[in-house]
Amino acid sequence: MGSTPRRTAVVLASLFVIVALPASAWAASTQTLAKRGAAYLVTQQKSNGSIPAFSNVGSTADAILAFQAAGVGGRAETAAIGFLKAKTQAGKVTTLGLESKVVLALDAAGKDPGAFGGHDLVGQIESTLAPNGRYGTDPLLEDALAVLAVVSAGDTVPTKASTWLIDGQCPDGGWAYDEPYNPSTDDAHCNSGSSDFYNSDSNTTSYVVQALEATGHTGWAVSPFSFFDTVRDAVHGGWSYDQSFVSTDANSTALVLQAYAAAHVAVPKGALAALRDLQYQSCGAWAYTWSETSPGPPDVGATIGAIPGLLLAPLPIAHTAITQGTPTVPSC
User: Fold this and answer.
1) pLDDT of residue 27
2) pLDDT digit string, tens, across residues 17-63
3) What is the full DSSP assignment across 115-178?
4) How many of the other CB atoms lie within 10 Å of CB of 90?
5) What confidence tens digit (pLDDT) does each residue in 64-92 have?
6) How far apart are CA 255 and CA 243, in angstroms?
7) Nearest to 254 by CA among 266, 241, 243, 269
8) DSSP H/E element including 279
9) How does pLDDT run across 90-101, given as a tens digit for each residue?
10) DSSP 49-92
C-alpha cells in the first residue's frame, strides 16, 4: 500500500498565460530565485536534519517539497528525511496532518511511505476514513492533506472522500480550517457565531482545490477562484489568509498560486510579482509580509512555502532527481 508513487500532478508553468510584469520583477529567472530560496533553507537546517518553522515535523516535510520543486538540496533533503524517520520511529508522527505531510514529502523524495520508520503511514491515513467520507476527525484542512497524500502514494481516493470535501464548501466559495459548512448554524463564511469562529480562508481553500483537482472531482457549487478574489490585496497584488485583514503574505500567496496551477487557471496579473517582491533575492529568503514599504525580516516558513508557489508546482509534487548542492548565497 502506497509503495510506488504514481503521480502526474505536476503542472508546467508554460501552460499559463502570465501577464507582463515590471522589468525589476524578472531580474533573475524564477528557477534561479527558487534555487536561492532552497540555499537559504540549507543555511537554516539544524544538526538533527530538521528545518523548523511553523512546526518541526511539518515544516521539515514541507522543506523537502521545496527542495524537490527547486531541483536542488539533495544532501539537505537526505538529512531532513533522516529527521522525519527518527520522529516516526519515536511515535511523534501521529496526527492526520503530520502523517499526510510526511507522506507527501517521502513520495516527492522517492521514498516509500508504506514502510517508513516502522510504520505504514499511508495505511494509517486510509484506516481513518469514515463512512461519511471524512478522513479522521481532525480539522478539514488536514482532511484535504490526507486526500493529497493518498493520491501521491498512488492509491485510489474513494469518491465519498471527494464528495465530503465538496459538500463542505462555504457559500462564499471558500473552505474553513476546522469544519465543513453547516447550513443550520453557519453564515456564508462558515462561521456559526458561537462554537465555531473560523471563517473560510485562502490556505484551507487552496489545499482543498489541490486535493479535488488531484482526484478529478471538482463539482463545487461556487468557484473557489471567486473566493480568492475577495482575499486579494489590491496594493501588493498577493493574497491574505482571510477577509479579516487583507494584506499580502508569502504563504497565502504561494498556496493560492498552487491552486491556480492545479486547476490550470491563468494566474492573475501581478500575482507572481507579488510573491517575488517579498524575496531577498541575494540571500534567497522570503519575508512573510510587508513592514510598511519594505519586506519584513527573512522568514524560514515563508521561504519553505514560497518556493512551490513561485514555481507553480501544485501538490502532490512528483519525484525527480535533484542536485546535491545549492548555490552559494550570502547571509541575509
Assistant:
1) 56
2) 333 333 344 458 999 999 999 999 999 999 999 999 999 999 999 99
3) SBTTB-HHHHHHTTB-TTS-BSSS-HHHHHHHHHHHHHTTPPPPHHHHHHHHHT--TTS-EESS
4) 10
5) 999 999 999 999 999 999 999 999 999 99
6) 16
7) 241
8) none
9) 999 999 999 999
10) S---SS-HHHHHHHHHHHHHHHTB-HHHHHHHHHHHHHHHHTT-
Q: Taking each helix axis from N to C terminus, what angle separates 159-167 and 202-215, rounded to the nearest 10 degrees? A: 150
**Mean pLDDT score, 271-283:** 97
CA dist 21 and 24 (Å) reads: 8
3-state SS assignment for residue 201: strand
Domains of the chain: 29-310 (1.50.10.20)
DSSP string over 85-105: HHHHHTT---SHHHHHHHHHH
Contact indicator for 23, 274 with CB cutoff of 8 Å: no
Cell (9 digits) for 97: 496532518
